[in-house]
Amino acid sequence: MCGIVGYIGDKKAINILLNGLSALEYRGYDSAGISIICNNAIETVKTKGKIIDLASLIIDKHTDLNGKTGIGHTRWATHGAPNTINAHPHFTKRVSVVHNGIIENYRELEELLNKKGITRKTGTDTEIIALLLDYYLKNSTPKEAFITTIKLLRGSFAIAALFKDTNTLMLAKNESPLVIGVGENENFIASDISALIQYTQQFIFLEDGDLAFIEKGKVEIEDSSLNPVKREIKTIHWSAESAKKGGYKHFMLKEIAEEAQAVRNTIQSRIDEKGNIFLQEEINLDEDLLKTLDSVTVVACGTSYYAGLCAKQILEKFTGVAVKVEIASEFRYSYPVFSKNNLFIAISQSGETADTKESLRFAQNSGLTTLSIVNVKESAIARMADSCIYTLAGPEISVASTKAFVSQLAVLYMLAFYIGKLKGKDVTKETKTLLSVPNIMQTVFEKTDELVKHIAKSYHSYKNFLYLGRGLMYPIALEGALKLKEISYIHAEGYPAGEMKHGPIALIEENTPSVVISPDFEPFYSKTMSNMEEIKARNGRIVMLSDKKSDIADSFIELEKIDYNFTPFVYVIPLQLFAYYIALYLGHDIDQPRNLAKSVTVE
Ligand code: M6R
To answer: Residue 185, by phi and psi: left (phi above 0), alpha (psi -120 to 50) or beta?
Structure first.
């Protein structure tokens, strides 16, 4: 939700800011802006729309932005409509501010300003920060004004401020991410490292409560008590190429094509051909707890939640431990009962999702042992949990999550086998099978891409879809339906196939096609065939995904035969492609669908 960038050094800031904002556009894309210090004045350009609109505006009207210090922002509106006036930066003659998060007490602060005759002109909470800074600058240094202002704020924020009269960028972080990219005689800031990997591999991840004061050759950090602190400089080797489209029309298609490799990267250093699993060091939890574990609680949102639902079946099957999977936004307001030896698992691609993060905090406050499964290095959820296992999917840019999902499955499967083994189960065969999964996934992608594209063409004008599956294919049906919804804006519902007769069958008619996901395993296959008969009897069209064809299907996507336990890795691929191609035929903005953002850092 909103992306921040900043630069201070000897290069022209504008290109670095625009490049960085393009990389962060997945975080929000309804308006954007930059402020740069030019000839001792703060020059600000902002607009409704995307970075490309901002860049055109700059090319057309602001060719003289030569300054070497600047900040930029791409927005996902929370307070105030997505228009030019509400776009960040918010500025006065002396100061300019970009902000990601929500200032909860902005009305209280506004009253304080109003009493001094200062009023807000925009609909944003962020303008209050700029106005407070400007007010305090009248009688204090920029650093004093910054500290005084930040101490008044409540809520979540990553803030970067630029001052006319000092060549220092000032940052504050609380709950929202902020990273400093360390260069040679230059420094960068961003909401996440994907904006900076083309410039540096050295990063400082600020902690909650931190304030940072950045010059081109210097970074000073103070903690929430204003004591100077050293934060470690970490080296991260994400390649700049991994955050580019690499010849694909959209990140989403590129990321689907990368799924096999993402799973391979995630498992290859953690299991071997003999069926050994090397997770102990990463998990770093008391082995006795894992041996005596009697329940697992998994919490996540969206696609990550569906990965949890698949994994529940695998965890229960291979560990014998009861698993509950909860939607994070509900979990934290519920009254969960935990057993004595519970393990709490938070799953998140971004590592920033507010609901998941707060659920994790809730679990920690309840005294649970916590583990996170996260893709973005050093993100909040990764750092908060007692231990973290990273999915090694590389940067996922498209708002619709694909390769992160299969990588989450890979971690959850390894974890199930690892705990199963500790509990005395023989999981050697399954662990070895997992090693063969990436090659099968690669074949499936290559074999189904064209076919799915062709099938999607004849389905793209329907307005409603049902997705049906049983067993492990039920969460995959949910995930397939979510993918279609979010990028094609077509209504789609995932259902357990057996539940269809309890209601959704009323929807079936010639204009409501069903996507039936049914690998050839009993008892599921025969029962699902009966469901397909019921659909046909009501003139419903059927797209069937299976390794065994049924003549009832109108369209058939043939998939590789694979051990039932591993079918989620394979069956999700054509569903992602189906959603992708339907959205493509409909001409939608696939990587940045309307109303969405990649990291949902608000509740
Ligand atoms: O970063 P997270 O995994 O915590 O994100 C959770 C959901 O917001 C996310 O999976 C969302 O549902 C995706 N847009 C799905 O494609």
So the answer is: left
